[in-house]
Amino acid sequence: MKPPRLARTFRVGDHWRMLDLKTLLMLEFCITALLAVAWILIWMAWRHLYQLKFLAAGFTAIALGLFLLLERGPDPASWRIVTDNLVLKIGLVLLADGVARFLGQPSFIKIGIVFLTIHILLWSAAVTYLPGDLALRIHLSTVFTVAMMGLLTRTVYLGDIRPRVLRWITIGLLAEYAGASLLQSLFVYWFPATIENGPILSDVNAWYFFQGTLFITALFISLLCMVSMRLFADLQDRNTALANEVAERRRLEVELSASLEAERAAREEQTLLMHMVTHEFRTPLAAIRYGRDMLEAVLERPSEAVAKRLTGIDQSVERMTMLIDRFLAGQKQEDSVLEPEELDTVKLMESITQPFILTGLEGRLRFSDLGKVRGYWGDPEMLGTVLINLVDNALKYSADDSLVEIAIFERKNILVFQVSDRGVGVPEADREHIGRRYFRASNARGRTGTGLGLHTCHKLVSYHNGTLSLSPRDGGGTVAIARLPFPGLPPHGKVSQPMEARV
Questions:
Q1: pLDDT (tens digit, 9 = 90+) per residue, 142-177?
Q2: Among candidates 107, 35, 33, 106, which has minimal Cα distance to 66?
Q3: Residue 75: its pLDDT value, please?
Q4: Is residue 347 domain-shared with residue 215, that is, in the same domain?
């Protein structure tokens, strides 16, 4: 004869009374709290995996909810029942959201808030109007848990998890927990006495928390394996990127070596060309000097104008010869390039005027601010070359009746050479390139030139630790300004290593 249903029900309850609810709650709380601490430490170690903080928050909330269940009394207030359940459900939502973020799936926060809101409203109503009906609250919790496990299962299935067996193990764990929640609801439905008709869970429900402890531990191991695989994949990617970078650097090193070799060969050719050109310069200079001497010998009493021009020719030839000798000496590093002395600005102006007297252009030069500057030491020949080149450029790119203004003055312990014109100016797009070797502005292509004049000026100014700049002039034209810091070059000894040009 079969026992009545009520008797079978109590036997089931007696069977599960072997598990103590309080003890299992304590065990699950301790394990979950330790897992929360572990996730916090893992997240702090790998901050770039920001998703781990959601997992840590989820485990922490679950541990807090278990602690609230553990320490509440046998007859808790309604608000306390709702609060304890809410904290556990928040932990589950955070856990699901952390897994989704980690696997690159859409966040669960919004849908989780919707589920939580509906669940808490229904739970609050159940606790308020049917405080003794524990079965209803269990069924509501089951619906929420199964829904969250379903979303988690979809996330894990669509997520990039390697190896694949880990994906199916995780899906199996989620299915087990959802199945356990359904089984609890079925037990309550089939055997109402298993909840002892009380307002809260008792020892007969301890089996559910026992399997929950196993689930949370297994899920932690599964998630930890996912993190390990992600870190391993990241390490492989970084190693691959590092290997590619090393290969790229080796390729660039080979290209750089080839470029340096080509540069060295080009410099050797340039040096050879310079020696050839400067050697060829000596021949016409010698012819000019010889012709000047012949004219002086033929003209016993030349007029003042002729004598002045003959003197200018002689000075120009001598100056060019000296510059060639000194640049050659600097290239060979046999002697100093610079020969500093205290600068006399009046003599400097006279020396730069001489070449333009020979060409009849001195009338276009206007000098201003030519006060005596004392205490500056520099190479007068090189500074004279700078000014001659700047004035020559200003005359070349200006109208035939346009004046070129030249000024030398001291400002804030800086010696300033300023040459201003009303010429074609420098296009804005070309300004940053002016001063590079062989570069010529786009509006200067129709005029004769090599693009070496301003490059030479930059280099000679840099020998004096100065700077050279070109800027547009109000009303049209260009203002070239060389700034030379006081006191200039050392007055004693020679400078054998010139600085690079400051363009």
A1: 999 999 999 999 999 998 787 889 999 999 999 999
A2: 33
A3: 79
A4: no
Whether pLDDT at 303 is above 80: no
Give one DSSP letter per residue of 147-213, joined into a string.
HHHHHHHHHHHHS--SSHHHHHHHHHHHHHHHHHHHHHHHHHHH-GGGGTT-SS--GGGHHHHHHHH
- Count of domains in the chain? 2
Whether residue 297 is predicted with pLDDT greater than 70 in this model: the reply is no
Q: Where is the domain boundary, 190, 210, 244?
A: 244
**Secondary structure (3-state) at 410:** strand
3-class state of residue 483 by DSSP:
strand
Please enumerate in sequence order all residues whose Cβ is within 8 A of that of 320, keeping only pairs 6 or more positions apart, or say none: 281, 285
Structural domain includes residue 253: no
The reply to whether 157 falls in a domain is: yes
- Residues contacting 391, CB < 8 A, separation 6+: 352, 356, 365, 404, 406, 419
**Integer Cα distance of 109 and 490 in angstroms:** 74
The owner of tokens 């307002």 is 199
The per-residue pLDDT for range 226-273, each reduced to its tens digit, is: 888 888 888 888 899 999 999 999 999 999 988 888 888 877 776 666
Rama region for 412: left / alpha / beta (φ>0; ψ in -120 to 50; rest): left
One-letter amino acid identity for 126?
Answer: A
Dmax of the chain from CA atoms?
160
Half-sphere exposure of residue 423: CA atoms within 13 angstroms, side-chain side: 27
- Categorise residue 484: left if φ over 0, alpha if ψ from -120 to 50, beta otherwise: beta
Contact 380, 351 (CB under 8 A): yes
Q: What is the pLDDT of residues 458-503, one digit of tens each?
A: 888 888 888 888 888 888 888 888 888 888 887 654 444 443 433 3
User: Quick check: is 333 in a domain?
Assistant: no
Residue 412 lies in a domain: yes
Last residue of a domain, one of 199, 223, 244: 244
Say how many C-beta atoms besides its own lie within 10 A of residue 262's C-beta.
Answer: 10
- Domain extent, residue 359, equals 338-485
Q: Are 35 and 59 in contact (CB under 8 A)?
A: yes
Q: Are strands 404-411 and 365-368 parallel, antiparallel or unpaired?
A: parallel
Q: Give the pLDDT confidence score for residue 194 in this predicted structure.
A: 57
Per-residue CA distances from 28 to 33, 35, 62, 215, 376 (Å):
8, 10, 10, 10, 87
Predicted confidence (pLDDT) per residue in 346-389, tens digit:
888 887 777 777 667 777 888 876 666 778 888 888 888 888 88
Residues 454 and 494: beta-carbon distance below 8 Å? no
